[in-house]
Amino acid sequence: MLEAHLPTYLPSIGLEVHAELSTRTKVFCGCSTEVGAPPNTQVCPVCLGFPGALPMLNRQVVEYALRMALALNCEITSPGLFERKGYYYPDLPKNFQISQKRAPLGRNGRLDLLANGDAFRVRISDVHMEEDAAKLIHPEGDPEHSLVDFNRGGIPLLEIVSEPDLHSVSQVEAYMSEVHTILRYLDISQARMEMGQVRFEASVSVAPEGATELGTRVEIKNLNSFRAVTGAVAYEIDRQTKALPRGEPLRQETRLWDAERGVTEPMRSKETAMDYRYFPEPDLAPLVIDAAWIARVKAQLPELPSQRRSRLVQEYGLSEYDAGVLTSDKVLADCLEGAVADGADAKTAANLLMGEPLRRSRERNEPPDLILRHVQPQHISWISRAIHTAEISGTAAKSVFARVMDTGESPAKVVEELGLKQISDASALVATVEEIIAEHQDAVENYRKGNENSLKFLVGQVMRKSRGRANPQLVNRLLEERLRS
């Protein structure tokens, strides 16, 4: 009996990226945005929503938003409009959020990317500015009460909204990573996800492949890490793909991601623009951005990650993979280029930076700029040259670099203190080689009978005897010479 033909389903995913901009003051008032201040100390009548308090737009917020819109190839809207997005929530004292909808700063952008070696394009629907809400704090063990810290209320947010052009988890991951990297390259946001400075919302729908219309859209809110986004999207694709063949109806709704259980759960039916009751913000004039302003900001844009990746491949001979890893964080790429400018071999420096720093970054959930805060490019170039001149071994180099990351000490001092200088003088190793040959005659006989592994064993014994300081290539040569004589 022939099996019934099952349709193939295509997911379509759109992402909203909400990034806190790293201005010194809030978007509509002069309150500080400094992180770590005591709760409710960075507030004023404007960001607390007192009657009669009038907002004043922070020009630096517009500058930063304009950088991102231009980096994403957006058309700039002028005049732009601010609107009141009305809804009640305990951490939004005005009962509305000043945002942009009808005339956002940027429209119709694009971002070209690679995922698993395949090129794809994501259309950017819009880039707009808004104010952040305050922060609710739920005391542990007290389900009856919540606390509110209004320090975050009014911090400038940049919202980047994509079209539903992403069709797999790998494409979602590539898009998120690139947008996050661009934010840091433009120096407009610290983009620290562990501090809530970047958050995501994902819209997922599934339809039979070849369908002319998208399926029922489900929005997933409050996603604060790459892992949360990819986990939630993967689950939702699977849930919808299984529901459709069974004829189960899908509701247009908002869902939340439960990371512990690995599932999404209904939160509420999906709001529409009508539910938010947008209307013009009467206290802010239309935002006019003339051609000269746009030209000035465009001329000041730095080299973007995709441009830098291509250049590192062409100029330094790095692989596409290595260049991709290193340009994924501006600090990594800056360290590499600084080290090469100081005489480092590009591949050796790249290997150092992609080793222990990234391991620590993953393990500690900290960005590379914190991991490498004690490291100077000259440290990396010194270690690179020491490897190539056989002053230290590759293994010792890892230990030296780890110590430099911890303390900021010069690598030369670390090598001296730890006694890691490699022995590359043949006369200093001859006695140790002869001693190992005398102690392991069985291995010597096996080597002479054609067992190559016996030579590796003898090399290892010399390295052990020298506490890892002997030059392994030199040890290998000395052993071969004596075993064949």
Give the helices and strands, then pairings:
Blueprint: E1 9-20, H1 59-71, E2 75-76, E3 83-86, E4 96-99, E5 106-115, E6 118-131, E7 135-137, E8 147-149, E9 156-162, H2 169-185, E10 198-208, E11 218-223, H3 226-243, E12 253-258, E13 263-269, H4 273-276, E14 279-280, H5 291-299, H6 305-316, H7 320-327, H8 330-341, H9 346-354, H10 356-364, H11 368-371, H12 377-388, H13 394-407, H14 411-418, H15 426-439, H16 441-448, H17 452-465, H18 472-484
Parallel strand pairs: 11-12
Antiparallel strand pairs: 1-9, 1-10, 2-5, 3-4, 3-14, 5-6, 6-9, 7-8, 10-11, 12-13
Helix pairs in contact: 2-3, 6-7, 8-9, 8-12, 12-13, 15-17, 15-18, 16-17, 17-18
Q: Can you walk through the features of this model?
A:
It is a single chain. With 485 residues, the protein is of the alpha+beta class. The protein has three domains: 9-293, no CATH class; 303-418, no CATH class; 426-484, Arc Repressor Mutant, subunit A, CATH 1.10.10. 41% of the residues lie in helices and 19% in strands. It is built from 18 helices and 14 strands. Helix 2 (169-185) packs antiparallel against helix 3 and helix 12 runs antiparallel to helix 13. The radius of gyration is 29 Å and the shape is elongated. The model has no long low-confidence stretch (mean pLDDT 89).
* Rounded radius of gyration (Å): 29 Å
Please indicate the count of domains: 3
Total of DSSP H or I helical runs spanning 4+ residues:
18
Report helical residue fraction. Answer: 40-55%
Strand arrangement across the biggest beta sheet:
2-5-6-9-1-10-11-12-13
Mean pLDDT across residues: 89
Task: List low-pLDDT spans.
Answer: none
* Biggest β-sheet strands, sense, barrel: 9 strands, mixed
- Strand percentage lies at 15-25%
Task: Quote the distance from N terminus to C terminus.
Answer: 75 Å
Number of strands: 14
Decide which structural class fits the backbone. Answer: alpha+beta
- What form results from the Cα inertia axes? elongated
